[in-house]
Amino acid sequence: MYDRIKDKVIIITGASSGIGEATARRLAAEGANVVVGARREDRLKAIADSVTGAEVLFQATDVTKPEQVESLVKLAMDRFGRVDAIFNNAGIMPTANLSELHRDEWQQMLDINIMGVLNGIAAVLPIMKEQKSGHILTTDSVAGHVVYPGSAVYCGTKFAVRAIMEGLRQEERESNIRSTIISPGLVSTELYQTIADKEFGEQLRQASEIPGVGLSADDIADAVAYAVSTPDTVAVSEVLIRPTQQV
Ligand code: NDP
């Protein structure tokens, strides 16, 4: 348990499953007020209904729509009057070789993985500048450091997000607004369902469930909780977390 998380107001996107859901549950268990968004409202409601001892608000949110992300932030402001942190976590990974020309998937990855993060930053930055405090966390990936065949566009989005977050850190370091990049390796979640090649997706899913080959979403939630728990004089710029056996 971390003392400094209690009563913080924390917004999480992509919170209907996987890393976002685990983080919402973890931060709520630490006593935070959590506001969760994703497209599947029924999944968000189930999370809110099952959490006891902390307030969890939810709203259907598509991170590619700036007005929906702003509305999620407004939900937090209307109820709590401030936003201490946002975790920009929504993302998809429909991997395929470039030669397959999956143009629609390329566009979706740019829209969700990059613009979704920028929409989150844009929705909270004016508020955090006014508050003179805030913490912006974003799920990146080991794929933001290393390029894998079949994942060129996905890796491109994660390289871009790391650049954006590092730029944010540099620009806002004197505004008391902290930035943290969370970069997981293979994690056992529903992410592999977005891969068109079902056989490859299933292989990844099975590998992700082997301890030491894949991490659990709770492992990543631990890292987010640590970053959020640090005092505002400490900037945890990046947490890179691999399962032990990952190259
Ligand atoms: P999940 O598929 O379980 O979670 C993805 C989340 O993103 C879901 O809640 C989904 O909710 C949400 N999402 C997708 N599109 C949108 C959208 N347009 N608007 C709002 N929410 C959206 O996978 P993970 O938990 O693994 O993924 C979370 C993040 O972790 C992603 O950014 C991913 O790239 C990153 N990551 C994952 C790794 C892994 O191995 N699993 C490794 C490294 C990074 P809904 O469909 O309801 O909108």
UniProtKB/TrEMBL annotation:
GO terms for molecular function: oxidoreductase activity, acting on the CH-OH group of donors, NAD or NADP as acceptor. Signal peptide: none annotated. Pathway: Organosulfur degradation. InterPro entries: KR_dom, NAD(P)-bd_dom_sf, Sc_DH/Rdtase_CS, SDR_fam. Residues 8-190 form the Ketoreductase domain. Pfam families: adh_short. It catalyses: 2-hydroxyethane-1-sulfonate + NADP(+) = sulfoacetaldehyde + NADPH + H(+). Its EC number is 1.1.1.313. Keywords: Oxidoreductase. It is an enzyme of class 1 (oxidoreductase). Belongs to the short-chain dehydrogenases/reductases (SDR) family. Homodimer and heterotetramer. This is sulfoacetaldehyde reductase (NADPH).
